[in-house]
Design brief:
Elements: E1 3-8, H1 16-31, E2 35-40, H2 46-57, H3 64-91, E3 96-99, H4 101-104, E4 106-108, E5 117-120, H5 123-130, E6 134-137, E7 141-143, E8 149-151, H6 157-167, E9 172-177, E10 198-200, H7 201-209, H8 217-226, E11 230-234, H9 243-247, E12 251-254, E13 268-272, E14 275-284, H10 289-299, E15 304-309, E16 316-324, H11 328-343, E17 347-351, E18 354-360, H12 370-380, E19 385-391, E20 394-400, H13 404-414
Parallel strand pairs: 1-2, 1-9, 2-6, 3-6, 9-11, 10-12
Antiparallel strand pairs: 4-5, 7-8, 11-12, 13-18, 14-16, 14-17, 15-16, 18-20, 19-20
Helix pairs in contact: 1-3, 2-3, 6-8, 7-8, 10-11, 12-13
The structure holds aspartic acid and magnesium ion.
Length: 420
């Protein structure tokens, strides 16, 4: 007997028919002798619908009283889907009980709309499991010290599931979703993309931070911190497929210790179109410049990603960095108004038509020449690299947005990712 956490995403919970399917699948797992905790998302579209209603009444604003109500509101989506799933399980003859986050309790800090989980009390859940029930815990939400309902940020049910699995020392956390695993890259861009049998948690972290939407990044951080065995798999297989086949399907997220020696050098190609480039041109090259520019940006709560500074010529240099596209005009205005005058720089230039393409793989640690292979492959396609950044397990380049698909396809091929 194992203790397993199942997480079902919004699409998997998208209609009563699908909820019935989830119930049948979960009941199959309990019949096989396992204890199951289920963490569902709201039915697909529900969170957007609820938040949309709030916006009709008053636009989003950085206001604690307003955000508290958003959490009060949005959390009802998961409360509904959880109760529906409990009803469906009971109809299958499987005793089941659902709890909202505060009833468990899942304690969080008080950062409404982006709260962080601090602790989980699993006593009540264990009691129910031992009494033979399936326990359903709402995803996406918790409760702060003052008893206010909080939510964990969009996509937060993944994090709820992993946190519950960590707190209960579950044997595995199965993330059921509308794709059948983690792919070498987005199959919509490269049809030859393959599903990975395993991916290391660090690679998954890089991919999640670079726009792969499969898992909320915080859930991956959580899994890494508490070494929660985690698998991404499809909820669209027939519910009655063989349980062993199901248990081995999808993509397993592994920790390096259990990693086999034969690791592909590059495991995946990630990309995102969400960034924009800012260049400060003709900056006097003297101490404190990076701080003057990036300090002002950080003070405005704008996150910076790739940064480069050119060699100086005649005491002047150019300084470029990328920010999220949503922050693009805000950053440009800030630099033009506040920083440029005191800096003595010549001008600030911006380019929002860029994208970032990255190769990711823990095998890069032990192989040389991986980055140069990437650069060669891009040059053969005539793609100009504007910026480069590297870490131990990834190399990213910033290029013109119009070459994104070409670059991703070329790299996917160059690193043999289309071959099993
Ligand atoms: N329902 C929430 C959302 O749509 C949380 C989740 O689905 O993970 O963001
Ligand atoms: Mg999701």
């Amino acid at each position: 007997m194992a203790l397993i956490v199942h997480k079902y995403g919004g699409t998997s919970m998208g209609s009563t028919e699908r909820i019935r399917n989830v119930a049948k699948r979960v009941a199959k797992w309990t019949r096989a002798g396992h204890q199951i905790v289920v963490v569902p998302s709201a039915m697909s579209g529900e969170t957007n619908r609820l938040l949309g209603l709030a916006k009709e009444l008053a636009p989003a604003k950085p206001d604690t009283a307003y955000n508290r109500e958003l959490d009060m509101l949005a959390s009802t989506g998961e409360q509904a889907s959880s109760a529906l799933l409990a009803i469906a399980l009971q109809a299958e003859g499987q005793p089941s009980v659902s709890y909202a986050g505060w009833q468990v309790a899942i304690k969080t800090n008080d950062a409404f709309t982006k709260a962080r989980i601090e602790s989980i009390d699993d006593a009540r859940v264990r009691g129910d499991l031992d009494a033979g029930k399936v326990v359903i815990i709402t995803g996406f939400q918790g409760v702060d010290d003052s008893g206010n309902i909080t939510t964990l940020g969009r996509g937060g049910s993944d994090t709820s599931a992993v946190a519950v699995a960590a707190a209960m020392k579950a044997d595995e956390c199965l993330i059921y979703t509308d794709v059948d695993g983690v792919y070498t890259t987005d199959p919509r861009v490269v049809p030859e993309a393959r599903r990975l049998q395993t991916v290391s948690f660090e690679e998954m972290l890089e991919m999640a931070s670079m726009g792969s939407k499969v898992l909320q990044i915080r859930s991956v951080e959580f899994a890494g911190k508490y070494k929660v065995p985690m698998r991404v798999l499809s909820s669209f297989t027939p519910w009655d497929i063989d349980i062993n086949e199901e248990a081995a399907s999808g993509t397993l997220i592994t920790f390096e210790e259990d990693e086999q020696m034969e690791q592909a050098v590059v495991s995946g190609i990630a990309f995102n179109r969400d960034e924009a480039k800012i260049s400060v041109v003709g900056v006097p090259d003297k101490p404190g410049i990076a701080y003057q520019i990036l300090g002002a940006v950080a003070d405005a709560n704008i996150e910076v990603d790739v940064i480069i500074q050119n060699l100086s010529k005649d005491g002047k240099t150019d300084f470029s960095f990328t920010v999220h596209r949503n922050d693009y005009t805000k950053t440009l205005d800030l630099l033009k108004e506040k920083v440029l005058p005191s800096l003595g720089a010549v001008e600030v230039l911006g380019d929002a038509k860029i994208c970032k393409v990255s190769i990711v793989g823990i095998g890069m640690r032990s192989h040389v020449g991986v980055a140069s292979k990437m650069f060669r492959s891009l040059s053969e396609e005539g793609i100009n690299i504007q910026m480069i950044s590297t870490s131990e397990i990834k190399t990213s380049v910033v290029i013109d947005e119009k070459y994104m698909e070409l670059a991703v396809r070329a790299l996917h091929k160059a690193f043999d990712l289309d071959q099993a």
